[in-house]
Fold each of these.
Amino acid sequence: MKLVDHFQYGLNSPICLTWELTYACNLSCAHCLSSSGRRDPRELTTAEAKAVIDELQRMQVFYINIGGGEPTVRPDFWELLDYSIAHNVGVKFSTNGLKIDKQRAAQLAATDYVDIQISLDGATPEVNDYVRGPGSYDMAIRALENLAEAGFQQPKISVVMTRQNVDQLDEFKAIADKYGAQLRITRLRPSGRGADVWDELHPLPSQQKQMYDWLVDRGDQVLTGDSFFHLSAFGEALPGLNLCGAGRVVCLIDPVGDVYACPFAIHENFLAGNVRSPGGFQEVWENSELFTELRQPQTGGACSGCQHYDSCQGGCMAAKFFTGLPLDGPDPECVRGFGEQALAARGDDHVVPKSEVDHSRTKIGKNTPVLLQLSMGRPDRACETSPLAGMGASQSDSGLRVPVAGS
Amino acid sequence: MFDPGAPYRCSPQVSLRPEPFGALVYHFGTRKLSFLKTLPLVAVVKGLESHPDVHSAIEAAGVEEAQRPAYLKALAGLAASGTIEPR
C-alpha cells in the first residue's frame, strides 16, 4: 500500500493541526474562513490551553499551526507560544502583523521552533485592502520589515488566491524575495464569511489553469498547504499530499475547544467533539464518530467514472459543502467544468448550508473592508431624520471606496 | 558515506511516532517530517544503537535476506537526511 493510502485511514495523531486561539480580530476580512471578529467568552483559558499543549506533546504532535482570529491579541499568546515550544510542540502562527513590532521581531528571531506567517491577499494595497480592510497592507509590510531587520529567518507570506490577485503571483514572489520570506499560496474556500464573497472572489476557470501552470514552474519554491490538489487533474500532480486530509491527518481546534475535521469546515456537520470533554483531544481524534467515518474507504460517487479521480480525489469537502454540492460529487472548481455544471443545476431555490458559528463584528469600523461595507450598508431611507442622511456610515474615517479590484 | 559495517544510532534529535504503517519521523534540528514505511524498518532504526553494525541490526529485526538491499538503500537515505548517524 502506498503511503498516501495509509493516510486515508487516519494516523495515530494529526500531522497538520490548526489551532485557532481566539475569534477576536482587529480586522474583518471579507473572506474570513472562521467568521472572526469578536472574542467568544467561552474561549479556552490559559490553563486549559496549556493542558491541550501537554496532550499534544504526549501524542507526539511535533508542531501546530496557530491562528485565529488574530492570535496575538490574546494577552497570554506569548506565554502559550513559549510554553508550547518548551514542550516540544513547535509553532507556526498566522498573523496580520498587528503586534510584530521591532521588539517582538527581535524576540521571535531569538526563538527556535517558531515560524511566522503573515497574511497578505494582494501585492498592492488596493488589491489587499479591498478584502482585508484599509491599512492592512501597510500593517503586514511593516511586520515583514521588522522581521527582516531583526534577522528572523524565512517568515512566510500567506496569500489566499482570488480572482483579483492571480495576476499578481510574480509580484507576491518579488515581495517574498525582498524580505527574505517564503511565499505560501492557498485556495480560497467558501467557508465562514468566504461563503458570502466566494462568487465574486474565487478564481475564474482560466485563472485556475494560470495558477496551475505557475505552480508547476515554481512548485519547489512555493508552499501551498497542499490546498490545490484539485488542480492536479490538469496534468501532473502538484508537490505535496494530493488528498483531503480532513479528520485523517488534519484537524482544527477552535477557540472554544471544539474539534472540527479541518480548518475550513466550521459547521456542526464536521464537529467531532470538544477538548474539554472526558478523554480530551486524544479521545476525539481517536474515537469520535465523525473521524471514524471519514477514515472509511471513500467512493468517488458521481466522480468515480472520471479518469482524473485518482489525481484530484474529488477535491475539497468544505468547498463542496458550503456551495451546497453533494460531498461525493465534483468540487465546485473542478477543472473539467463538472463543478460549474453542478452549481448551475442547484436550482434557484437551493439553500447553501450556513454555519451557526459566527463571531463577525456587527458594526462597521475603520478597518472594515470595502467589500463588507458595500454588502452590509443599509440603504438610506427617505424618512431618515438625521441631517447626515445620504452620508451615513460612509462618513467614517475609512471612507467608502469604490472597489478597484474585480472591476 | 554510509557504511553498513559500522555502528550507527537513531539521531538524538529525532523522534519516532508509531503509526499503523511504520513511523512518522520528526527531526528537531531540520524540522523535517519523513516516514518509515514499514514496521521492520522501524525495528532496524530503533535497534541500531544496540548492535555493533547496521547489518546485524537488520538481521535482528528479522528482515528477509532478499529484502536487505532495499533496506540498505533506505538506511543510506536516512543517514543522508541525518535521521540516523554513526556512533
Note: The first helix of chain A runs from residue 3 to 8.
Amino acid sequence: MLEIDLNQNYKISVKEPQVLRVIEPDGTLREEAELGYKPSEGELVKLYRYMVTARVLDRHALLLHRMGKVRSTYGPHEGHEAADAGTVHVLKPEDWIAPYYRMLTALMIRGVPLQTIWAKFFAKQGDPDKGRNLTVEWGGFAKWRILSVGAPIGHQYIYAAGFAYALRYMKRDEIVAAYIGDGGTSTNGFHTGLNFAGVFKLPVVFYVYNNQYAISVPVRRQTAVTRLAVKAAAYGIEGIAADGMDLLAVLKAAHYAVSKARRGEPVLVELVTYRFGPHTTADDPATRYRDPAEAEEWRRYDPIARLEAYFKKYGILTEREIKLTWEEAEAEVKAAAKEAESYPEIPKEWIVEDVYSYIPPHLREELEEL
Amino acid sequence: MMANMAKALNMALREEMERDPRVVILGEDVGKKGGVFLITEGLYEKFGPERVIDTPLNEGGIIGFALGMALAGLKPVAEIQFADFFWLGADELINHVAKIRYRSGGNFKAPLVVRMPYGAGVKSGLYHSQSPEAYLVHTPGLVVVAPSTPYNAKGLLKAAIRSDDPVVFLEPKALYRAPREEVPEEDYVVPLGKARIARGGDDVTLVTYGAMLPRCLEAAEKAKASVEVVDLQTLNPMDYETVIKSVSKTGRLVVVHDAPKTGGLGAEVAAIVAEKALHALTAPVVRVAGPDVPQAPVAHDDVYVPTVERILRAIDKVMAYS
C-alpha cells in the first residue's frame, strides 16, 4: 500500500496556550504582573474578604449538613474562590452570570445576603427557589442577575448564547459570563454553546473551572487534549488559560475576555484549579479515588493562602488584619445562619405554584389530595 | 381568505411578528428556504436575518438558544424540523424550558413556542412520522397544543405566542395541505386550554385532536349513530370538563390518535372519564390508536394510521351496549 506523506500543509496544528500565573505560591509577584489589567490594592483586599467569607460559609455549610440542618446534598466550594472573585469582579453590575454549582464567592460579590443563602440551604422561606432545589442549584437568583442552573449540566452554555443574542437584539450593552466544570466540556451543551456563540459572534465569556475531577473521573478521562482552552479553536473563537487559584491571573484573563466579549468576540477561558473537598456530601474521595497526597500537593496553590502570602510580602495587609478578617467572617456567617434558622417553613400549598403562570384546575384538585 | 393550514400558520407568524418586535423565529432552514414545509415562507425577506434565524443543525441548540432568548424577554418561536428530532433537544425542553419557572421559584420564565410537524400518513418512515405527544404531556410545565383546522391553527398559534408559558405546538403535517377553509385575515386567537365540539351528537363521544380530526368527522358522518366529536386542541393542561360533559350526555367514549396505543393520550382520557364519570358510561371505553410498533413503516403507512373503517368499527362496538 502506498503511504502518502501528509506534511504540515494538510494537517491542523493547535498550539496549547500557557497557563497564565502572576503570584507564585510563596506570594512573590512574577513579571506577568505587568500584563493587562492591573487592579488596585483596595480592590484585591475587597475581593479577598469575599473569598474568606465564602470559605467560612462553605465550611459551616458542611458542618450544618452533618447536623442535618442543611436539607439536601451539599457541594463544597473550597479552591474555587479566586476563580469566582476575579471573573465576577470584572463584570458590570448589569451583566449576567449563567452559573454552575460551586459559586459561593460569586454570590457574595453579587450581593446575595448570607441569610438568603442559608435560607436556601435550609430550604426555608427566604430561599428564592422556594425550597425546590439542591443546595447548589441556583435556580431563581434573578434579582442579582444570576441566571438559573439545574443539575443536568451543559444547558447553561447554550442558553447563555441565546440570552446574549437577545441582549444584542434589544441593543442592551450587557454581556453574559457562563460557567461549567471540566466534566461539562464533554456535554452537548458545551459544544453547542460555543458553536452558536462563534457563529453568531455573541457577547459571552465561557469559563471552564478545570478542577481536575468530575466526581471521581479525572480530566484525562474527559478528553484527550491536555489544555481544555484549545477546544475553542474548533469553534473559531479564542481560548486562553490561567491559574484559577491565582486571583491576579484570573483578573487579567477575565478582564481581557470580557473586553473582547463586549465587542462581540466570545472567548473560552480555562481556569485551572482544584476541588479540595469531595464532589458533594455524598462523596468520599480519600477512600475511593484520590490520593490524599495529591490534595496536599495542590494545597501549595491555595487561592486564599497565596493571596495572604502576597499581602504580607508586599505590606498590603498585616498578619493581624488577616486574622481579624477571618474572625469577622466567622461571626457574620454564624449570625446569618442563626437568623435564617428562624425563618418559617415553606407551606405545602407552594408545591403547585410556578408550574405554569396560573394554577390549572387539575393541579388544584391534586393539591387537595396531598 | 381561503387558506390551508400551512398558509394559516404563516399568517399567524407574520401577524405576530408585525404586532410584537420581541417575536423572533429560529430553526433549521427557516430563513431563505422558508422551512421544509414552507411555514416561514416570506418572513426572512420581510423581517430580516436578525428575526428569522437559520441556526446550526442542533435541536438542543435551537431549544436551548430559544430558552436564553425567552429568559431575556424575547418571544422566540423555534421550529424543530420534524417532531422526531425533538429528542435531540429533550434535555433542553424537558429538563430546562419546562422546569425553569418552577426551579426559579417564579423568578424566571420561558414563554417560548416550539413548533414541530408531527404524525404519520405521508409515507416518511420511522424518523419523519412520530407522534410524541404522550411524552410531552407527561411533562408538567409545558403546554401542549395540536391544531386540526386552518382556522384553529392560526388562532392557537397566535395564542401560543402570546402565552406566558412555554408551548409545544404539534402541527399535523398530514393536514398542512388539506383542503382550504375560510381563515379571517383580522386578528383573533383560539384560547389555550379549551377543547371544542367539532360536531354535535347524542350517542357516542369521539375524543381526538390534530391529524385525526378529519377522519373522525368522516366516520361520524358515515355512522348510523349520532356521534359527537370533541377536538381537544390543547392536550395539556387538558380541558377535561368538556370531555366529561360530552360523555355524561352520550354514555359512550371512543378516543382516537395515531400515536402508539400503550401509555398514549387515549389512556389518560379514558382514566379521567373512569375517575370522574364512570357512572355515566354504558359501554366500555374503546381506543383507536397506532399499533405499538416503533413507527409507521413506509410500506404500511396507511395501515398504521387509524382509518375511517377502524373508527366506524369502534363506534359499532360501543353502540352494541345500551
Note: Chain A touches chain B through 46 residues (CB under 8 Å).
